[in-house]
């Protein structure tokens, strides 16, 4: 793997006076991957341009113009055949972790893919990790870029079980040695450095914690009960401000309460979802929302969802001025849209599938389709929702329905896989779908929504049996 990464680095050096373009995936991992390589190229004084695409569909590939050297990060391996039609004969680097298709390469192609080296690209290394391998060869001092490689891996939910696996462990080790990441055991709450602790608790919904998930008043009571002050001299206390004793009291109480609610066969998984490894970007002391690697990743993801990945890209490369402000604006917009969506859920937006198992909502006209997934996640903690059943959300725009589905990680631990059912149901309706076992999506013709829901529910019911 290292050898191929070195060949890629050499190819980049060889083209230092030619045109170079980085083309990356428009998501948190892809943004991180592009930022890593771009920084490494900058440090070597090599000029280049960057662009992001959603997918390398045939029509997208046709619109691309080969540069003297084109570098694909976090995509390319599964679309090698499409790429070959346009790029055969041109210098190309692919650095990807998606499953490669069987297709002929060409002599000027350097293809670096996790799967070719016995790594599981789903869990063990991300697109940003693959880009990091090249950056490390290109720039001997590139070890600090490992932090971004981990931010990308989290974007692809590669730390789903509370820690990193496989080669990500290696990268984590390098990040700690380089002094850019600190690892600690902590509660798995969002907003470690950026939100008051009661807020972080309120939004914790997987697993569902009775009296805590979605209940601000309940969270405040709980903290009082546990003798954990909400404020100190400086203002609201955040998770990061709690001392060890306070964190332990809180963790035990959350686990005890979750036990009361979780189906018995899942009880053993609960502690692992509440306590896990937290990763702090040591150098981001002045930027609370970038201090926690998971939150950093969410920030990048929101710029990609708004189709403004270049904002996230500049922030990932280090901008803390205009781009960072633009990103904060996007996040605020994002929150407002999410709040609108949750109001809709609260006012009775949840419906049942034809067989009474699936929960779903149709938020067409309430929010834009890019928010449907976030709202589905949060809706799972809503009092009107059963947290141990999957939920799907639909938003129809311009004739196309975007569907997102979510389920508790506990269901996945029981062997449930939403993405399988999603893909099959979408294909059944002539659309496309996929994603992760607990979070996935599809796009289909808007008239096919009822058919889709029926099929999806049928497939899910079959999985439970
Ligand atoms: Mn990826």
UniProtKB/TrEMBL annotation:
<dbReference type="InterPro" id="IPR001667">
    <property type="entry name" value="DDH_dom"/>
</dbReference>
<dbReference type="InterPro" id="IPR048515">
    <property type="entry name" value="DHH_CID"/>
</dbReference>
<dbReference type="Pfam" id="PF01368">
    <property type="entry name" value="DHH"/>
</dbReference>
<dbReference type="Pfam" id="PF02272">
    <property type="entry name" value="DHHA1"/>
</dbReference>
<protein>
    <submittedName>
        <fullName>Uncharacterized protein</fullName>
    </submittedName>
</protein>
<dbReference type="InterPro" id="IPR003156">
    <property type="entry name" value="DHHA1_dom"/>
</dbReference>
<feature type="domain" description="DHH-CID">
    <location>
        <begin position="189"/>
        <end position="258"/>
    </location>
</feature>
<feature type="domain" description="DDH">
    <location>
        <begin position="20"/>
        <end position="139"/>
    </location>
</feature>
<feature type="domain" description="DHHA1">
    <location>
        <begin position="389"/>
        <end position="460"/>
    </location>
</feature>
<dbReference type="InterPro" id="IPR051673">
    <property type="entry name" value="SSDNA_exonuclease_RecJ"/>
</dbReference>
<dbReference type="InterPro" id="IPR038763">
    <property type="entry name" value="DHH_sf"/>
</dbReference>
<dbReference type="GO" id="GO:0003676">
    <property type="term" value="F:nucleic acid binding"/>
</dbReference>
<dbReference type="GO" id="GO:0004527">
    <property type="term" value="F:exonuclease activity"/>
</dbReference>
<dbReference type="Pfam" id="PF21763">
    <property type="entry name" value="DHH_CID"/>
</dbReference>
């Amino acid at each position: 793997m290292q050898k191929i990464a070195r060949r890629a680095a050499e190819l980049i050096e060889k083209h230092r006076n030619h045109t170079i373009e980085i083309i990356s995936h428009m998501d948190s991992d892809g943004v991180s991957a592009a930022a890593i390589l771009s920084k490494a190229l900058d440090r070597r004084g090599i000029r280049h341009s960057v662009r992001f695409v959603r997918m390398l569909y045939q029509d997208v590939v046709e619109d691309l113009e080969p540069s003297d050297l084109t570098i694909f990060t976090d995509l390319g391996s599964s679309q090698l055949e499409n790429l070959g039609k346009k790029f055969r004969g041109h210098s190309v680097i692919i650095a990807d972790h998606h499953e490669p298709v069987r297709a002929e390469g060409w002599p000027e192609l350097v293809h670096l893919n996790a799967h070719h080296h016995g790594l599981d690209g789903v869990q063990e290394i991300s697109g940003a990790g693959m880009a990091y391998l090249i950056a490390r060869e290109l720039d001997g001092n590139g070890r600090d870029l490992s932090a971004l490689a981990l931010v990308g891996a989290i974007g692809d939910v590669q730390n789903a079980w509370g820690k990193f696996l496989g080669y990500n462990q290696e990268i984590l080790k390098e990040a700690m040695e380089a002094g850019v990441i600190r690892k600690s055991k902590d509660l798995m709450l969002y907003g470690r450095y950026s939100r008051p602790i009661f807020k972080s608790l309120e939004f914790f919904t997987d697993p569902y914690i009775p009296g805590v998930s979605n209940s601000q008043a309940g969270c405040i009571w709980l903290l009082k009960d546990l003798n954990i002050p909400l404020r100190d001299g400086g203002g609201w206390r955040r998770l990061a401000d709690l001392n060890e004793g306070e964190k332990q009291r809180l963790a035990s109480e959350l686990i005890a309460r979750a036990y009361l609610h979780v189906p018995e066969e899942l009880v053993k998984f609960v502690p692992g979802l509440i306590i896990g490894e937290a990763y702090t970007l040591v150098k981001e002391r002045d930027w609370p929302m970038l201090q926690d690697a998971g939150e950093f990743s969410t920030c990048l993801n929101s710029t990609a969802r708004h189709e403004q990945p270049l904002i996230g890209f500049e922030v990932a490369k280090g901008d803390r001025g205009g781009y960072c402000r633009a990103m904060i604006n996007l996040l605020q917009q994002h929150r407002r849209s999410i709040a609108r969506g949750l109001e809709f859920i609260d006012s009775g937006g949840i419906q049942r599938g034809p067989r009474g198992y699936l929960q779903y909502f149709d938020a067409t006209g309430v929010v834009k389709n890019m928010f449907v997934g976030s709202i589905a996640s949060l809706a799972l903690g809503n009092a009107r929702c059963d947290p141990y059943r999957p939920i799907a959300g639909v938003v129809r725009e311009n004739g196309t329905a975007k569907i997102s589905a979510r389920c508790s990680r506990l269901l996945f631990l029981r062997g449930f896989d939403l993405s399988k059912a999603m893909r099959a149901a979408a294909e059944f309706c002539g659309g496309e779908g996929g994603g992760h076992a607990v979070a996935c999506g599809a796009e289909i013709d808007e008239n096919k929504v009822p058919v889709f829901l029926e099929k999806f529910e049928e497939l899910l019911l079959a999985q439970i049996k």
